[in-house]
Structures are given as C-alpha cells and as structure tokens.
Amino acid sequence: MGGQDVIGNQHQDGDWEANNWQPLYIPFTSVPGPTDSVNIERDEPIKFFELFLTDEFVLKLVDQTNLYADQSIEQQQRLNAQKEHSRSKAWKPVTVQDIRKFLGLMFLTGIITKPELQQYWSTDELILTPMFSKVMSRNRFEIILSYFHFNDNSQRPADCTDRLYKVRPILDHMLTKFRELYTPGQNISIDEGMLSWRGRLGFKVYNKEKPIKYGIKSYVLTDSATSYCWQLKTYCGVAASLEETILTLLGNLTNKGYHLFMDNLYNSVRLSKRLLELGTHVCGTLRKNRGEPPAVHNASTSNMQVGDVIALHKENVLCVAWRDKRVVKAITTIGENGMVEVNVKQRGVPGGRIAKMKPTCITLYNTYMNGVDKLDQCIGYYPFTRKSVKWTKKFFFYILQIAMYNAYVLYKCKLQSPQCKSLSDFITSVIRSMIKMEDEEGNIVPVDEDAAVITPRTPTNDPATRLDGIMRNHSLKLIVGNGNKLYHTRVCRVCKKKGLRSETRYICGSCNIPLHKGACFTNYHSLRKYY
C-alpha cells in the first residue's frame, strides 16, 4: 500500500482478512440535479424561491396568523387584560401581500445587520435605513411578528405527543419540497445541524463539540457536491436508534447506489452491512466498540508508527486504522484498500505544503463529508433568525434559511450563466421581488403607496442640515399617519422648546421636524437658538 508499513497484512484477525478485499459493485441509477418539478418560465431568483414558498404555503401563514391574533385578542378581552393603549387594538388582519413584505423585511435583516430590531426604523441619520419604514411601519411589523403563527393550537388533540406540533405544517411542507425538487449526486453526507437556543425547551440539547453549544439539533442529509439539504429530522427528545434515524433520512435513496459519508457517531460494522443490503455504500470514521476487529480496536494502544496502517475486511466491509499525529479509525464499503498521495499544509516548507500518503477511505471521507458544514456556513453568512421568546418562530426562519439556500442551488444548477453570482445577490433579488422594489423595466418604485407616504417618526435631535442656508431645500408637507384620523398632527418643535404644547399639521420634508407655518418655520431654519 504505497510503500507504507501495512500491519494488517501480517496476519488474520478471527474472521477478518487482510488480503484480496473487493468492494461490492452497486451501480448508481439516479439522475442528479433539479427534477422535472423545477419548471421555471422566467429565470428570476424569486421564481426559484417560490418553488418552496408557494402561494398555498403563504396563504396558510396568513390564515394561521389571523386566527391566532383573533384568539389572543378575544382571550385578552375576556380576561379584561387588554390595556388601554395596547397595540392589539390597532390589529388589522394580514393579507398575502402583508406576509410577503413581512418576510422580505426579515430576509433583509440578514443582509443589513443591526443589534436591535427597532433600529431598522430609526430616524437617526447615523443608522438610518429608510426602506423599512417605506415598506411597513414599525408598529405593523412588530404586531405581525407578535401574532405570527403556524398551526391552530385549539385543534391539537389532548393525547398529542408531537413536540413539533406548532411547526408541523410548515416543516412537512418544506421537507416535501426539498425532496421533490432535487435529486442528490452519488455522494451524500449525514451530520448534525444546530439552531442556537438557550431558552426553556424540553428537547434542547448541549453538545460541547459544536460551535453552537445549546440549541435544537437536527440530523441533516445533504448533497456533498452542492450542500443542498435533501432531508432533515429534528431531534425531539424521543429515543430512536441510529439505524432508524439514518434510514428515515435516506428515504427513497436506498437501492440506487449512493455513497453515504458519516462521522463516527453513526458508523458501525452492523450498520454498514445493513446499508449494503439496501444498495447503499458507506464511508466514514469509526468509534470504539462498533464491531471492528480486535487489531483495529486496540490500535490506539499498539506500537504503531506514523504512517502505519492496519486494514482488515470481512465480506464487503473494510476497517482501517492509520497512524498520523494520532490513530484514525475508519470504515468503508467503497474505494480501494490502498494509499493515495495528497498535499497537506505544513509550516516552514517551501509552498506551505508537503506530500503525504493517506488511506483511500480517509481521503474520500475528507472530500465528501463536509456537505452539512458548508450548508451551515452558507446560511450563517446572512442569518435572519432573531432572538425570540418563542422557539417556533426562530425554528421557522431557520427552515426558511435552508429553503433560501436550496433555491440558490437550484438557480445555479438550472441556469448556464446566472445573473446572480453569489448567495448575497440571490437573496437581495428575492427581497426586491417580495417587497416589489422594481417595476418590469427595472425602475425603483414605491413599495406600498400607503406605507410610502406615511410620515416617519420625528427624530429626537435637530438635524445639522436645518441651518444649511438653502431655504429651497426646506418645504412644509402635510403629516400623514396610518390611523383613522382625518387630520394627523404633531407637536411643533419650536413651540415645544418654548414650553408650549401646540400641535401642527405640517412637517419639514427635509428635516422631518413638525413646524407651524410662518415664524416657527423661518426661525427654525435661520436661527441657531430658535426658541
């Protein structure tokens, strides 16, 4: 094996043999890539995302949000718990367009990051983001977020044990779409994904080995080449065997010649044989006491030198122990029982790399195992999951982040020369379409005629431009609100500074400061001390 010392070739270990290993040949019969269900008439990013975020799905969100709002407000009124100035009194049922704009703004928070949600509507020139207030008022956005819901609590059976009941409809819909729209390539991987969550939750887990220590764990199956998430199973605290979990994730991918890469949490000799019976190859690292031969089991305590290899096989399963900086154990049913030369990083040498011999199975594992890690990395670039007291909302946006990335994979696979070269461009294009920022000719247009003319909140401090000396830049406009009042008024800034509470219907269009016509307007823009 490539000139290395192959300890396993010196003996047999019970029923395990060292020579003449041949992997079982299983032809790959799937056709990888987007399926026939990806039938796009126009090559726009929004069309690919709407394959997941369908009209039926959005309508479900509308119905459940309105239902939950009605139920909550009715309960508040019944218990006499609705405060005098409660925002729930201003609640208006959401529409499909409301939900699309709401989701579009949530996606935009992943592109434009701010520490607090309220800052997106701030009138402070330092952090001003005017698009948010043009699309939707802050109060409207927050009340929609407050009542955002996915399943009817009143219809939950008394004996229901499904801990994901609150998100079950949206989870089942998305997972069905994930599988329906794409067929993975021959190499696939299974690993754990974590959604950060430190609040109270019965199935929250702790994993010190993960970058995210506390959260909601999901078992994820991805295409190794594209990191497309094909299947996902969320851990709910219910005991299930690893074999059952893996077979659930594989679904109808069995008996098609797939190569499945997994880490040592899942792999065992028994599982490898079981998957071979189901027409699926396995490759990955191996823990102790997973059915390996004694020589591999005891490799860590043996006198193996750097580069030594123990390779033993039984039937079509090969177990390998290889000494690098430490002993690495692996199991495989694919590849050759041999060594390959790879270039690895090495400090202090010309070029920063040196050639090293590694077992074939280790090389395959390093190449194809990182599908889930790449997925986590990509959705972590532009995260729009935000802190919430309800895990259901954060989980929903986590699934939606995966759907956004999957849509991007379909977009790249389907188009020879995609206009959006990066995930950021793709998400931005989807956002523009969801909040209708462009017309058919690509011109910028107001998003919502009612929302676009609503007067923004008055800034606390006077803007520096009030004394720019160019009076033509300053003109009074009528104040426009989003309530049912015929005339909307605010306290005049000049009168307020004088200790008077006198309201006006006008505001300076440039400074966004309420002012009376005449002396108040003139003094504010000409005197440093206008009061």
Description:
By secondary structure, this protein is α+β, with helices and mostly antiparallel strands. It has three domains: 7-29 and 184-375; 45-160 and 390-434, no CATH class; 455-526, no CATH class. Helices cover 32% and strands 16% of the residues. The protein contains 16 helices and 17 strands. The strands form five sheets. Strands 3, 4, 5, 6, 7, 8, 9, 10 and 11 form a nine-stranded mixed sheet that branches. It has a two-stranded antiparallel ribbon with strand order 1-2. Helix 3 runs antiparallel to helix 13 and helix 6 packs parallel to helix 12 (391-414). Residues 1-12 and 437-452 have low confidence and may be disordered.
Strands, helices and their partners?
Blueprint: E1 33-34, H1 45-49, H2 55-78, H3 96-111, H4 130-135, H5 138-147, H6 168-181, E2 182-183, E3 187-196, E4 205-206, E5 214-223, E6 229-234, H7 242-250, E7 258-262, H8 269-277, E8 280-285, H9 294-297, E9 309-314, E10 317-323, E11 327-332, E12 339-345, E13 353-359, H10 360-368, H11 371-381, H12 391-414, H13 423-434, H14 449-453, E14 476-478, E15 490-491, H15 493-497, E16 503-504, E17 506-508, H16 519-526
Helix pairs in contact: 3-13, 6-12
What global shape is seen?
Answer: elongated
**Helix- and strand-based class?**
alpha+beta
**How many helical stretches?**
16
What is the helix fraction of residues, given as a range? 25-40%
* Strand segment tally: 17
Distance between the termini: 90 Å
Characterize this entry briefly.
With 531 residues, this protein is an alpha+beta fold. The chain has helices at 45-49, 55-78, 96-111, 130-135, 138-147, 168-181, 242-250, 269-277, 294-297, 360-368, 371-381, 391-414, 423-434, 449-453, 493-497, 519-526, and strands at residues 33-34, 182-183, 187-196, 205-206, 214-223, 229-234, 258-262, 280-285, 309-314, 317-323, 327-332, 339-345, 353-359, 476-478, 490-491, 503-504, 506-508.
